[in-house]
Amino acid sequence: MAMQRNDSMEEVLDEKGPPQNVVMEVDEPTSVFDYENFAAKHLPDLGQEVEDFQVCTWKLSRWKSLEKKLTGPEFSCGGHKWRILLFPLGNSNAPPNESVSIYLDYADPKNAPEGWHACAQFALVMSNPHDPTNYVVSHAHHRFTADECDWGFTRFHDLRKLFVPSDGHKRPIIENEESVISVYVRVLKDPTGVLWHNFMNYDSKKETGFVGLKNQGATCYMNSLLQSLFCTNYFRKAVYQIPTDQDTPADSVALALQRVFYNLQTQNTSVGTTELTRSFGWNSLDSFMQHDVQEFNRVLQEKLEVKMKGTAADGAITKLFVGKMKSYIKCVNVPFESSREEDFYDIQLNVKGNKNLRDSFRDYVAVETLEGENKYHAEGHGLQDAKKGVIFESFPNVLHLQLKRFEYDIQRDAMVKINDRHEFPFEIDLAEFLDESADRSQSHLYKLHGVLVHSGDLHGGHYFALIKPDRETRWLKFDDDRVTPVTDKEVLEENYGGEGMTINGVVPMNPQRNQVRTLKRFTNAYMLVYIRDTAIDEVLAPFDDSDIPTHLKQRIEEERIQQEAKKREREEQHLYLTAKVISDQSFRNHQGFDLATFDDKNWPASDLATFRVLKTESYMIFKSRVAKWILIPEQQMRLWVLVNRQNKTVRPDAPVPENDTSNLTVEQVRNNMAARQTDLRLYVDVWEPSPTVKVPFGDVVPGSIMIFLKYFDVQNQTLTGISKVYVQRNQKVGDLAGIIAEKMKWAPNVPIKLYEEIKPGMIEMMKPKSTYAQSEIQDGDIICFQTEISEKEAHDFESQQLASNPIQFYDFLQNRVLIHFKPKDQEKDKEEFDLTLSKKMNYEILSQKVGERLNHEPIKLRFTTANAQGLPKAYLKRALNQTIFDIISPSYLSNQPALLYYERLDMSIVELETKRSLRVVWTGIHNKEENTLSFLLPKTNMVHDLADQISKQVTLSPNTTGRIRIFEITKDGKYQRECNSSEMLGNLHDVEFYAEEIPREELEAREEDKIINVFHYSKEPARAHGVPFKFVLKPGEKFTETKKRLQERMGVSDKDIARYRFTLIQSAGFKQPTYVEDDDIIFDHKFQPDDVLGLDHVDKSGRARAGAAEKAIVIKG
Question: Is the model's pTM score more than 0.70?
Answer without folding.
Answer: no
